[in-house]
């Protein structure tokens, strides 16, 4: 387990994604991504890597409409693999299936990028040891370079059998309408620290991770919140270590005048761009 994804840090645990055709989406997440179905109904399916913890929940709204650009919402969610060898196995699997993908070496990590059949973005990555990350004045050095595909593939020749059970939700990257406004919300209300900037983007974390949450205006400054029935992100979870710290977060949200609704297993709120967040323990 990554030390950045356990207490006392606050981190992303699960994403709920709206899709147009549930069965098609489930087949993709099983056969291309390598998650397994934990529970399934007519309209929802929760997917897991370890057979216990849901990482991705798919939902087919009754009046669903396709994803359209120029809205806030999901840029990608990112599944974190335990080892570089796991990335080798996944890379070879993508090459063998012929599924289109992109890639990037970000200094702190090596990543592969794909979209599901509905256009929801997914990153699958592994982290270089944090002792190798370079920090200066509270900011971590990140870039986007070409990956060393041959070097990665040389790490493992294991056959692909789905995602390893140690796979977790590493981070989420969101489209917003205003970076400064959203950054202020995540910094001042939810307590995340900004650790890197890209053009029109900010990267934030707790516990000196390279990022648990990233935000950008690459869909346009002022991009509106999408319709509720549009394909894309429904909500993502922030995991708190206990009820006391979660209540402290709820109190800060309420003090800031942000709506918080008690749900069955959490508190539902939204960032200034309308991206819904479920606070869980």
Task: Write up what this structure looks like.
The chain is α+β, with helices and mostly antiparallel strands and 281 residues long. It has one domain (3-280): 2,3-Dihydroxybiphenyl 1,2-Dioxygenase, domain 1. It is built from five helices and 18 strands. The protein has helices at 22-33, 84-97, 149-153, 179-189, 243-255, and strands at 11-18, 36-40, 44-48, 54-59, 73-81, 102-105, 109-115, 121-127, 135-136, 139-140, 168-175, 193-198, 201-205, 213-216, 232-239, 261-262, 267-270, 276-280. It has an eight-stranded mixed sheet. A hairpin with a 3-residue loop joins strand 2 and strand 3 (44-48). The longest helix is centred in the N-terminal third of the chain and has 14 residues, at 84-97. The protein is globular, with a radius of gyration of 18 Å. The two termini are 17 Å apart. The mean pLDDT is 97. InterPro entries: Glyas_Bleomycin-R_OHBP_Dase, Glyas_Fos-R_dOase_dom, Glyoxalase_1_CS, VOC_core, Xdiol_ring_cleave_dOase_1/2. Belongs to the extradiol ring-cleavage dioxygenase family. Its cofactor is Fe(2+).
Structural class: alpha+beta
Rg: 18 Å
Which range does the strand content fall in?
A: 25-35%
Order of strands in the sheet with most strands: 2-3-4-1-15-18-17-16
- The ordered string of helix (H) and strand (E) elements is EHEEEEHEEEEEHEHEEEEHEEE
Characteristics of this structure?
281 residues, alpha+beta, 2,3-Dihydroxybiphenyl 1,2-Dioxygenase, domain 1, eight-stranded mixed sheet, 5 helices
């Amino acid at each position: 387990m990554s030390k950045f994804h356990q207490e006392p840090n606050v981190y992303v645990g699960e994403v709920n994604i709206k899709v147009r055709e549930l069965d098609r989406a489930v087949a993709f997440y099983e056969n291309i991504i390598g998650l397994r179905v934990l529970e399934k109904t007519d309209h929802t399916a929760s997917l897991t890597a370890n057979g216990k913890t849901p990482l991705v929940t798919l939902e087919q709204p009754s009046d669903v409409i396709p994803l359209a650009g120029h809205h806030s919402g999901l840029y990608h969610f990112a599944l974190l693999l335990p080892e570089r060898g796991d990335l080798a196995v996944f890379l070879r699997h993508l090459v063998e299936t012929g599924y289109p993908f992109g890639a990037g070496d970000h200094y702190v990590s090596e990543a592969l990028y794909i979209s599901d059949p509905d256009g929801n973005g997914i990153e699958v990555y592994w982290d270089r040891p944090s002792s190798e990350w370079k920090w200066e004045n509270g900011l971590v050095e990140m870039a986007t370079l070409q990956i060393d595909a041959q070097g990665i593939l040389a790490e493992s020749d294991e056959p692909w059998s789905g995602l390893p059970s140690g796979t977790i939700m590493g981070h989420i990257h969101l489209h917003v309408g205003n970076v400064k406004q959203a950054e202020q919300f995540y910094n001042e209300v939810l307590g995340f620290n900004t650790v890197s900037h890209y053009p029109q983007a900010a990267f934030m974390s707790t516990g000196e991770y390279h990022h648990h949450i990233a935000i950008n205006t690459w869909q346009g400054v002022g991009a509106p919140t999408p319709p509720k029935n549009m394909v894309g992100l429904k909500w993502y979870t922030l995991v708190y270590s206990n009820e006391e710290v979660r209540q402290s977060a709820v109190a800060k949200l309420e003090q800031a005048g942000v709506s918080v609704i008690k749900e069955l297993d959490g508190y539902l709120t939204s960032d200034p761009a309308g991206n819904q967040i479920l606070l869980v323990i």
